[in-house]
Amino acid sequence: MYAGRYGRLFPGLPPLATEAEFLRMLGRRGGACDGGLAADAGESDDAREAAGWPFFGQFIAHDITADRSPLTHHADAELIRNYRTPRVNLECVYGGGPVGSPYLLDRDDTAKLLLGVNDAGRSDDVPRNQQGIALIGDPRNDVHLFMAQLHVAMLKLHNLLVDRLREDGVAEPDLFKEARRAATWHYQWIVLHDFLPRLVGTPLTDELLVHEPRYFGGENDDGEPFIPFEFADAAYRYGHSQIRHRYLVAGEQVPIFPDLVGFQPVSASRVVDWASLFDVPGRPPAQRAKKIDGRLPRSLIELPVAITGDVDDDLHSLAVRDLERGSGVGLPSGEAVARELGVAPLSPAELALPDVWLGETPLWYYLLKESQSRAGGDELGPAGGLSARSWLASSSATPSPSSASMPTGGRRCPVRTKTASRSPIS
Ligand code: HEM
């Protein structure tokens, strides 16, 4: 199993010294990060983007970073390992591949990935063992209904590509590998050309793609690509503030937790209609994501035991966890990062921290407030753009699968052959 080191974007900046009780006060129920039940569908914190994009962002997070170190054990950050390769490569879908994870494959057609069958006899769930535990490349992709269903969509994408490649005459022994490559390239294309502009805006995406994709390097002293702690434990956790408390599912507004918690079979009545999460031509606009504003919905302030395990009350709050994780790995303050990047730091009024706190601001919280003040809560702010930079630095250190032509042929691919003649990330 891969276990690489994390790295740092700003090794020269000192860690922010914070008091544990301050972090808990900020993140627990009733604190500055508690959005309560306000983040309901239909209220004014509707963001520009559709509600499905944060879940796509969460899927990417699970593809590139997995820190399994215990939250309360503030280990030497050098010893913390990332159990995902820092590559946008669908590892969370393919796991160890046919040799390392043979249970992911369909024995009746070994080029295909196995799907689970729901209570209506349809292949609309992830495969599960007899106790309902998902048999997938990353257990976190079963954390809630939308992630589990997005994982199903990825399994179906692979299988659809197998069908098309087979029709196109690709040899049976090559089918799995070629479908995997095609699925990965489509996914990478969406990440770079659809997801990223929504997150950091088109100008910054273009600037990063064209001029300076390796602004921060992206390799550690051993020449290995890495995910920076500033990214995994602050910037890329922006998505926690985009989650709503309630979502429209099968015509009903339902709190994401506890109602839509995962780790159990998905019944046919809960199969997701993607047009309710992404804008689909010819269908009414989808529900929106929540604006990024430093607040998390009550569902995430009171995560269910199924997700946190049996821990003290404060650690049910994802905000407390985000803040403690950042402190544990010694992240610099948001103000220090802004100064380093030449961006005007936020004012105390913009930060809206409790009066008792006179120090600088934890990076995760700072970047959320920066998005609220400087980008209307719809995308990351200027210092948050470091997320994109670090993202591209790490992903562009990924070797391309190959420079060979896209195997599915232009007429069938959603991405035209010309564009897809090599991995979009190279
Ligand atoms: C309902 C939605 C979500 C839930 C329940 C959830 C839950 C969690 C939990 C429990 C952790 C581990 C916290 C810790 O102990 O450090 C975590 C980590 C993380 N989350 Fe989320 N999350 C959600 C959505 C998102 C979204 C939308 C994004 C980004 C777009 C995101 C990005 C991350 C990242 C980058 C990490 C760190 C992962 C690692 O390095 O291992 N999450 N999340």
Mean of residue pLDDT values: 87
SSE arrangement, N to C: EHEHEHHEEHHHHEEEHHHHHHH
CATH fold category name: Myeloperoxidase, subunit C
Alpha-beta content class: mainly alpha
- In percent, how helical is the residue content? 25-40%
Name the beta content range: 5-15%
- Name the CATH architecture: Orthogonal Bundle
Morphology: globular
Q: CATH H level: which superfamily?
A: Haem peroxidase domain superfamily, animal type
Q: Sheet bearing the most strands, described?
A: 2 strands, antiparallel
Number of domains: 1
Q: State the low-pLDDT regions, or none.
A: 396-421
CATH class: Mainly Alpha
Number of strands: 8
Bound molecules: protoporphyrin IX containing FE
Strand order of the largest sheet: 1-3
**Terminal Cα span:** 24 Å
From the alpha carbons, calculate the radius of gyration and give it in angstroms.
Answer: 21 Å
Q: Compute the number of helices.
A: 15
Chart the SSEs and their pairings.
Elements: E1 4-5, H1 20-27, E2 46-50, H2 52-64, E3 81-82, H3 91-94, H4 97-100, E4 105-106, E5 109-113, H5 145-167, H6 175-200, H7 202-210, H8 229-232, E6 246-249, E7 252-255, E8 288-290, H9 298-301, H10 305-308, H11 318-328, H12 334-341, H13 348-351, H14 363-375, H15 385-395
Antiparallel strand pairs: 1-3, 2-8, 4-5, 6-7
Helix pairs in contact: 1-11, 2-5, 5-6, 6-7, 7-15
Bound molecules: protoporphyrin IX containing FE.
Residues 54, 57-58, 61, 65-67, 71, 143-144, 232, 236-237, 239-240, 242-243, 256, 307, 318, 321, 325 line the site of protoporphyrin IX containing FE.
